[in-house]
Design a protein that fits this description.
The chain has about 270 residues and is mainly beta. The protein folds into two domains: about 70 residues, Sandwich (Immunoglobulin-like), CATH 2.60.40; about 170 residues, Glucose Permease (Domain IIA), CATH 2.70.70. Helices cover about 15% and strands about 35% of the residues. The strands form five sheets. Strands 11, 13, 14, 15, 17, 19 and 20 form a seven-stranded antiparallel beta sheet that branches. A four-stranded antiparallel beta sheet has the order 3-2-6-7, with no helix packed on it. Strand 13 and strand 14 form a beta hairpin. The chain is globular and about 50 Å long. It comes from Acinetobacter venetianus (strain ATCC 31012 / DSM 23050 / BCRC 14357 / CCUG 45561 / CIP 110063 / KCTC 2702 / LMG 19082 / RAG-1). Pfam families: Peptidase_M23 (PF01551), Peptidase_M23_N (PF18421). InterPro entries: Cell_wall_metabolism_enzyme, Dup_hybrid_motif, M23ase_b-sheet_dom, Peptidase_M23_N.
Length: about 270
Amino acid sequence: MMMYFKKIILAATCMIPIQLLFAQLPQDSRRAGGIAVIPLSTGITQVSYEGKAVLISKENEQPYAVFGIPLSAQVGTLTLNTNKNPIQIEIKPYRYAEQRLNVKNKDYVNPNQEQLDRYAREAKEQNDIYSSFSQSSWTQFPNFIRPTSGKFSNSFGRKRFFNGEERAPHSGLDIPAPIGQKVVAPADGLVVGTGNYFFNGNTVLIDHGQGLISIFCHLSKINVEKGQHITQGEVLGLVGKTGRVTGPHLHWGMSLNNVRVDPQLFLK
């Protein structure tokens, strides 16, 4: 009898589509800084938020909107526009931790005018990338892997204080690691930006398609060039402590529809 039930279970499993067994969509977490994975009804082919296009992907022939929720989003109802009827989602309460850091280089706490001007130029350069929306070549949402080894610090979304002064919430995930450790591409994409930035240090930005951008900061070395196609697992640089840091680590950020979201939601 037991063997009979095992055969039934095995047969049923074999009938499940491969796409369902290995679903690639990120985790649904409807909070500020989270992601809403929304199944779309028939006929909806376009979704937007505040005039910005929202990524659409398919799993097992079912289309989904994959929407990045702003860190500034308030608890309550949030509305997305479509080519048919609007979609409303509920943003749940979520409490992020606080982080107090002592930065020895005071320029990184209270920059002078020249440094502020430099930061403004670099911020515009990066924001132009975040707000871009390139068509993806993939038919299924890409599978993401960790860009480097190390224990996650759970730092995304933390309210930060540098030398006692409050700053914007942390928009990425910090992974403490030794200088020189390899940093790899978590998924296929196009290198759309590299540079040495005032706060971020040596930085690489990768476009994965449809407004999905990954960013890697504080590198000791950059191994790729702008315009280079990169595949998952390919080395893009080495861990370092360039820019505003208190120790060597990788800052891994993910931007979706020009909103910074928790990178951990892309990992299985």
